[in-house]
Write a structure and sequence with these properties.
The longest helix has 23 residues. This protein has five helices and four strands. Helix content is 36%, strand content 13%. A four-stranded parallel β-sheet has the order 2-1-3-4. The chain has 167 residues and is an alpha/beta fold.
Length: 167
C-alpha cells in the first residue's frame, strides 16, 4: 500500500515572522503526514528571522522549531517549488495584497489573526499574546486535519478552509 502524497499548505503573512510561522509549525505537528506546511511573507525584512516569542511558544507547546525561517513568497512561485494545494493568508495585510500566481491554482482562504508582535506591555503580556494566537491557529488546524482523507478535494478543501475562518 502506498502512502498518499501529503497536501501542501502555504501560510502567508507580511513579514513571515509570527503568525505564518506559528501556523506552519502547528500544521506540521498536527498533520500526521497528511499535510506538509510551509510559510512565507510578501515582504520579509532583510535578514528577517522568526520572532523569538513565536519560537518560544512553539517550543513550550512541544512543537519542533528546527528549520523554521522567514522567507519571501516568491520562493514558492519558482518552477522547482513544491505544488501548493491550499494557500491561507493569516494577516489582513497579506490578504489585501496582490498575491503571485500559484502554479496549479490552489484553493485559497483567509484566516485573520491580530499580530501578536504588535502587543505592547510586559514580557508576560507579550508572551501571552503569542500563546493566544497559537491557540487560535491550532483550533482551526485541528478541524482541518480531522477532515476525512477521501473528502479533501480542491473545492472541499477551499470551502472548509473558508468556513474555518468563521470559527
Amino acid at each position: 500500500m502506498t502512502t498518499p502524497t501529503p497536501l501542501n499548505v502555504l501560510f502567508l503573512c507580511t513579514h513571515n515572522s509570527a503568525r505564518s510561522i506559528l501556523a506552519e509549525a502547528t500544521l506540521n505537528h498536527l498533520g500526521r503526514g497528511r499535510f506538509k506546511a510551509f510559510s512565507a511573507g510578501s515582504s520579509p525584512r532583510e535578514n528577517q528571522q522568526p520572532h523569538p516569542l513565536a519560537l518560544e511558544v512553539l517550543q513550550r507547546a512541544g512543537m519542533a522549531t528546527e528549520g523554521l525561517r522567514s522567507k519571501n513568497w516568491d520562493e514558492f512561485g519558482q518552477p522547482d517549488a513544491p505544488h501548493m494545494d491550499l494557500v491561507i493568508t493569516v494577516c489582513d495585510n497579506a490578504a489585501g495584497e496582490t498575491c503571485p500566481y500559484w502554479p496549479g491554482q490552489p484553493a485559497t482562504a483567509h484566516w485573520g489573526y491580530a499580530d501578536p508582535s504588535e502587543v505592547k506591555g510586559t514580557a508576560e503580556q507579550q508572551l501571552e499574546a503569542f500563546r493566544e494566537t497559537l491557540l487560535a491557529i491550532r483550533r482551526r488546524l485541528e478541524f482541518l486535519v480531522s477532515l476525512p482523507p477521501a473528502s479533501v478535494d480542491r473545492l472541499a478543501l477551499q470551502n472548509m478552509a473558508r468556513e474555518l475562518a468563521q470559527r
